[in-house]
Design brief:
single chain; about 210 residues; alpha+beta; Nuclear Transport Factor 2, Chain: A; about 20% strand
C-alpha cells in the first residue's frame, strides 16, 4: 500500500499529467487553478509528436509555473538549508526541480485510464486546500488527494500534495535528510545530496 501511495506522493506534479480531470466549479478559483494545470498536462501527455526530451521540457515548464519550487525545496531540505552556503542553496534548488521532472517523467507511461475529480476547495490561513480523488478504472478504492495551495499576488502556487494523509513534501524531506546525514551532515552532507540528485537525474535521462 505504501509503495502505491508513494507513487502519487512523490509525483505530485506528475499526477496532473497522469490523469484526466473533470471541471471544477467556475466560482472555485483554487479548484479552477488545479483544473487548468490538469488541462495543460493532458495536452502534453496526448501530444504524440513530442519526444521524451520535449515532453520533459514541457512538464518542467508546467511544474515550475504551477508549483512553488523554492518554498517546497527549502522545506524538503529542512534544517540543512541554513547550513548550506548560498552557492549550495542555488545549486540544490536547481537540481531539486530538475530531479522531480527527470525522475518522474518516466512514470507518465503508467497512466491507465484513471479519472481525476476536483471536489472543491476550502480557504486556509495561507491560501487554500483543494480536495480531489483519483478514480481507478479497475474499480479499486479511490485515492484521496489534497492540494495545498498558496496565493502569491493574483497567482496560485502548489506547495504540497497530500495523498491519503501522506505529504509529498514531508516524505521527500525524510528521504533527503537521510542522504545528508549519510554524507556527514552540514555542508558536506548538502554536497552529498546535490551529488546524489545529479546521479538520479542522469540515470533518468535528465
Amino acid at each position: 500500500m505504501w509503495k502505491y501511495l508513494s507513487r502519487y506522493l512523490a509525483l505530485g506534479a506528475a499526477l496532473l499529467i497522469a490523469v484526466s480531470a473533470t471541471p471544477a466549479r467556475a466560482a472555485d478559483e483554487p479548484g479552477a487553478f488545479i483544473q487548468g494545470l490538469g488541462d495543460q498536462a493532458i495536452q502534453i501527455l496526448q501530444n504524440k509528436q513530442l519526444g521524451q526530451k520535449e515532453r520533459q521540457a514541457a512538464f518542467n515548464k508546467l511544474f515550475t509555473e504551477g508549483f512553488d519550487v523554492p518554498e517546497i525545496g527549502k522545506f524538503v531540505l529542512g534544517r540543512y538549508w541554513n547550513v548550506a552556503s548560498p552557492t549550495q542553496q542555488q545549486e540544490y534548488l536547481k537540481l531539486f526541480g530538475t530531479y522531480v521532472v527527470a525522475v518522474y517523467a518516466n512514470r507518465f507511461s503508467q497512466y491507465s485510464g484513471e479519472k481525476f475529480t476536483v471536489a472543491g476547495s476550502q480557504t486556509t490561513p495561507d491560501g487554500a486546500s483543494v480536495a480531489s480523488q483519483i478514480i481507478r478504472p479497475n474499480g479499486g478504492p479511490p485515492i484521496n488527494i489534497v492540494w495545498k495551495i498558496s496565493k502569491q499576488g493574483a497567482a496560485y502556487k502548489i506547495r504540497d500534495v497530500v495523498a491519503e494523509n501522506l505529504s509529498m513534501a514531508v516524505t521527500q524531506r525524510a528521504e533527503f535528510s537521510s542522504v545528508v546525514e549519510r554524507g556527514g551532515g552540514g555542508a558536506a552532507g548538502v554536497d552529498a545530496l546535490n551529488n546524489t540528485l545529479k546521479q538520479k537525474i542522469a540515470a533518468n535521462g535528465g
